[in-house]
Amino acid sequence: MNLCRLPALALIAALGACAGQAQAQSYPSKMITVVVPWPAGGATDVAARAIANELKASLGQNVIVENPAGAGGSLGTVKALNAPADGHTVLMSSQQDLVLAPLSYKSATFKADDAKTVAMVGRTSVMIVVRKDLPASTLAELVALMKSQTAKPLSYCTPGTGTIYPLIVERMNSLVQTRNLQVPYLGFGQCLNDIAGGVVDFAVVPIAGPFPGYVDNGSVRALAVLSDTPNPRVPKVPLANATRGFEGLTFSLWAAMHVHDKVPDAIVAQLNKAILAVLAKPEVRKTLEATGITVFEPMTPQQSHAYYLQDVRTLEALFRSVGATRQ
Predict the structure, then answer these.
(1) How far apart are CA 172 and CA 170, in angstroms?
(2) Beta bridge partner(s), residue 253
(3) What gap in Å lies between CA 280 and CA 141, rounded to an integer?
(4) CATH, domain range 22-123+253-321
(5) How far is CA 71 from the centre of its chain?
(6) How far apart are CA 132 and CA 87, in angstroms?
(7) Alpha carbon distance 45, 42 (integer Å)
(8) What are phi and psi of 64, to 5 degrees?
(9) pLDDT > 50? residue 137
């Protein structure tokens, strides 16, 4: 092809494509950083480290995990999206930090559309747990107790006011006309400890990471799973949608890997291929599934991004429907 004979706009596009291909051919040229915008030890962090350890061998570069936490995941997400758009910084993402944080926090100086999906990693359901001495053994009994506590509403803890969990509770409240008092924390650790200690009445928590263990050892009692199918990690816990008023009430949390929208598609495709190869390894799947995560079926970057954008629109609608505001 004679580049000199191309129209100006076509020439610019051709040169841009050539530059992207050249970058992909030399990628990766240095250490890769996986940013987890939450404290170490959670389900997202466990997944990120399991993947990072295996990526080192397939990509031929060191892969490290960083945990710049705070402001509903927005601090770490800002750091990841402000890094050079060369594919050497990857965000281990979730609905909370990439989608809800910019809706909830003024400190989140980005939009959900600023990110490009590399791969959808896994998903998990959520469950409603209560303190073990709360006089409610079923979801229906919990609703009845909420309605009876008009003078002193039941309390529920969350890992922050701008997170998905108060949105889920407010959605429940709107379905059955109840109300309760949110007690926001900086993370789920102290929240679960305070439910176990009888300080807080209930919470909605992910069926992942350390949280099912609280149910296993009797520290808290699980009343319902917000899913269409029973969760294999807590198979005896009934579905919320079997309770009158909660028909169709389901929520699924996902973990994914994203980069800045300006990262060349060729690099994204290379990363996607490497990550899918890691997720196909039985030992990695076993590690993730042990935390309660169900690994997604393989998707191309285009399919992954379409899935992501669909969920973005769903969460934006939920955010508006419960009257949530930006802080």
Answers:
(1) 5
(2) 124
(3) 42
(4) 3.40.190.150
(5) 15
(6) 47
(7) 5
(8) -115, 160
(9) yes
The closest alpha carbon to 299, from 269, 263, 264, belongs to 269
Distance CA 169, CA 297 (A): 29
Over residues 60-78, the pLDDT tens digits come to 999 999 999 888 888 999 9
SS3 188: helix
Contact 204, 127 (CB under 8 A): yes
Write the CA distances from 103 to 56, 151, 166, 172, 229, integer angstroms: 35, 32, 14, 20, 30
pLDDT of res. 1: 47
Show the tokens assigned to 158: 């969350």
CATH class of the structural domain 125-242:
alpha beta
Spell out the residues 6+ positions from residue 236 whose beta carbon is closer than 8 angstroms to its own: none
Q: Give yes or no on whether 22-123+253-321 and 125-242 have one common fold.
A: yes
Q: Rounded to an integer, what distance in angstroms lies between the CA atom of residue 226 and that of residue 61?
A: 40
Quote the CA–CA distance of 40 and 187 in Å, as a whole number.
11
Strand partners, 155: 181
**CA–CA dist 207, 122 (Å, integer):** 12
Distance between CA atoms of residues 204 and 193, nearest Å: 14
Q: Please give the sequence-ordered ranges of beta strands (E in DSSP) within 262-315, or none if there are none.
A: 294-295
Give CA–CA dist 21/43, Å, rounded.
Answer: 35
Mean pLDDT score across all residues of the chain? 90
DSSP state of 209: T
Residue 5 corresponds to which amino acid?
A: R
Domain boundaries, the chain: 22-123+253-321, 125-242
CA 314 to CA 12: how far, in whole Å? 36
Residues 6+ apart with CB under 8 A from 83: 33, 89, 260
Q: Is the pLDDT of residue 14 over 50?
A: yes
From the list 157, 158, 168, 155, the residue with the least C-alpha distance to 253 is: 168
Handedness of CA 157, 161, 163, 168 (dihedral sign): positive
Q: Is the pLDDT of residue 33 over 70?
A: yes
